[in-house]
Design a protein that fits this description.
Layout: E1 2-5, E2 9-15, E3 21-28, E4 33-39, E5 42-48, E6 57-58, H1 65-73, H2 78-84, H3 90-104
Antiparallel strand pairs: 1-2, 2-3, 3-4, 4-5, 5-6
Helix pairs in contact: 1-3
């Protein structure tokens, strides 16, 4: 669903599941274009086109979910990550892992392409 308020704001609301929505706000102006969204249930995972190219980040910082996942995948413990990145909190790591697990639940259905 998209809704335009005046000529300056555009709200885009996406229903992801029965309990989660994504809300994007686009502010239109002469020199400024901002976009961001939050996901219900993932309050620490943010998206902003001005930060890390709009990739999933932790609390609006320049720390991507993929960085945290790579650190864990390469054997770093939660405590080692917290020592290396003091501005990261334990719940940031937990939620990044939870977000990745949620993304991995996506189903793929093969399409049958018929040729003439």
């Amino acid at each position: 669903m998209q809704r335009e308020i005046g000529r300056r704001h555009l709200y885009i609301i996406r229903l992801l599941s029965s309990s989660q929505i994504s809300i994007s706000v686009v502010l239109k102006g002469k020199q400024r274009h901002m976009e961001g969204s939050i996901m219900i249930g993932f309050d620490r995972i943010t998206f902003d086109s001005q930060i890390m190219g709009g990739r999933a980040c932790v609390r609006g910082m320049r720390v991507t979910v993929s960085l945290i996942l790579n650190l864990v995948a390469n054997g770093m413990s939660t405590e080692e990550i917290l020592d290396a990145y003091p501005y990261i909190e334990h719940d940031d790591i937990r939620q990044a892992l939870h977000y990745a697990a949620w993304l991995a639940e996506e189903s793929i259905y093969p399409m049958e392409i018929k040729t003439a």
